[in-house]
Write a structure and sequence with these properties.
With 423 residues, this protein is of the alpha/beta class. The protein has 11 helices and 12 strands. The protein has helices at 2-10, 35-38, 44-52, 65-74, 102-107, 189-192, 197-210, 246-271, 306-309, 336-344, 362-366, and strands spanning 20-26, 54-60, 112-118, 137-141, 175-177, 216-222, 277-283, 313-316, 325-332, 377-381, 398-401, 404-407. It has a 9-stranded mixed beta sheet with strand order 5-4-3-6-1-7-8-2-9. The protein has a 3-stranded antiparallel beta sheet with strand order 10-11-12, with no helix packed on it.
Length: 423
């Protein structure tokens, strides 16, 4: 037992290879969207990981999709990485180029790095795209604006709705960048047309794992609960016919589909007889008011109430994490870079010199909270400008310290989203 604890605290057992890390980000995942909280049966595989891994009880996203990703990859609050209270990451804005990202640290330590799904951190200039920010390959879209089957930009996109293609047809938003190229080419749309996004991203992850020669860092941003809501009919009936709200029924079907895809990823490691991996799975934000449930927290995305920023999170590994436990302390998406780079991979460079302000919580997570979390404060947005009820995307100034939270001005809808069904 003592030897096991010692290796967990250090992060890497002496003489062992760095673990592969699969980092799953799920957009707009409400606290009450997962099976271990609501009992609706949409996430049986995630429920099993929750029982085998470590649940993070007080995990905070970045308020909206782009700020959350900016914090994840930079190791700091989003407003320290160029994403202010009214910014959800227009495709014209990017993560500052002088910020060193998680994959850039890991590539220096023999990791193969891959990004799949919605990017959100800069698009028109290729220097802001994933393969210029530390990832070897990229397969996904500029944001979470495309649909799930045909991979074209949503007609209500704020960036391209007035910019038709030369043929006046819809604009494709699917990019496939192989390793070693300096270009950012569109994917062959005929190959992926009518191929469901969550499946084709997972197909690629399975392929990457099957061809693994070095430790992997795979970040997959599944925009699984973002509009438009659609999934194949067999994932709706009869499993969720007891749900009366159509949007909720479809969202549960989408989660159930994603849940099956995530199980395929673990099976891919099993198929190559590799148990040296860690799953980090969490929401980017809390849920929205239409199909999600954030109970018992009030509020929904966008906003600063707990329902908008609290989201489920799991760490799981068959070999490196004490199973079946809960981490009771606070954790923010900004803590993931130092937890991965310093805690899991043992990279000893001083991250603070690079501007990283998040905490390395690997010791606390891997030993099931046997230590005290160094994080006691979460700043959602500084007091720079107040949000208005008419603001479509805004994270109002708010701070939590210990058991208290201060919110200034309009903090989004003050509601309890989607009450659970009566059994």
């Amino acid at each position: 037992m003592y030897k096991w604890l010692l290796s967990s605290v250090v992060g890497i057992a002496a003489g062992s290879e760095n673990p592969s890390i699969v980092h799953i980000v799920i957009d707009q995942l409400g606290n009450n969207d997962v099976g271990w909280n609501n009992g609706e049966g949409a996430t049986p595989y995630l429920d099993s990981l929750a029982s085998k891994g470590v649940l993070i009880k007080e995990f905070y996203g970045g308020g909206m999709s782009a700020p959350s990703r900016a914090s994840i990859l930079s190791g700091r609050y989003s407003f320290e990485a160029g994403y202010g209270p009214r910014c959800n990451g227009s495709m014209w804005q990017g993560l500052p180029l002088d910020i060193k990202t998680t994959p850039q640290y890991l590539k220096e330590n023999n990791y193969s790095t891959h990004y799949l799904g919605g990017w959100h951190l800069g698009w028109p200039l290729r220097n802001y795209t994933p393969t210029y920010r530390g990832f070897d390959t990229f397969f996904g879209s500029s944001e979470n604006t495309g649909d799930y089957w045909w991979h074209i930009r949503s007609p209500d996109s704020t960036d391209c709705s007035e910019a038709p293609t030369p043929t006046a047809g819809p604009m494709t938003d699917l990019t496939d960048v192989p390793a070693g190229t300096r270009k950012v080419p569109h994917a062959d749309i005929e190959t992926y047309y009518e191929d469901y996004s969550m499946k084709m991203f997972t197909d690629r992850i399975v392929k990457i794992i099957s061809e693994k020669t070095t430790p992997l860092y795979i970040m997959a941003s599944y925009y699984s609960l973002s509009k438009p809501l659609n999934v194949a009919i067999p994932y709706l009936y009869p499993r969720f016919q007891f749900i009366t709200k159509d949007a909720r029924k479809i969202a549960n079907g989408m989660l159930f589909y994603l849940d099956e895809q995530l199980q395929r990823i673990e099976q891919a490691f099993n198929d190559v007889h590799d148990s040296n991996f860690i799953f980090i799975i969490h929401g980017a934000t809390g849920g929205n008011q239409y199909q999600s449930s954030n109970i018992p927290f009030r509020g929904s995305v966008p906003g600063s109430w707990e329902g908008a920023v609290r989201t489920p999170a799991i760490f799981y590994s068959p070999t490196r994490i004490q199973s079946g436990s809960t981490f009771e302390g606070q954790m923010h998406v900004a803590d993931l870079l130092p937890t991965i780079v310093s805690g899991i991979c043992g990279i000893s460079d001083s991250l603070q010199n690079d501007g990283v302000t998040g905490f390395n919580l690997w010791k606390e997570v891997s030993t099931a909270g046997m230590g005290t979390s160094p994080r006691n404060t979460v700043v959602h947005s500084p007091i720079t400008s107040l949000c208005r009820p008419t603001d479509e995307h805004c994270v109002t100034p708010a701070i939590r310290q210990g058991d208290y939270k201060l919110v200034v001005g309009y903090a989004g809808l003050d509601n309890l989203t989607y009450p659970p069904p009566v059994s």
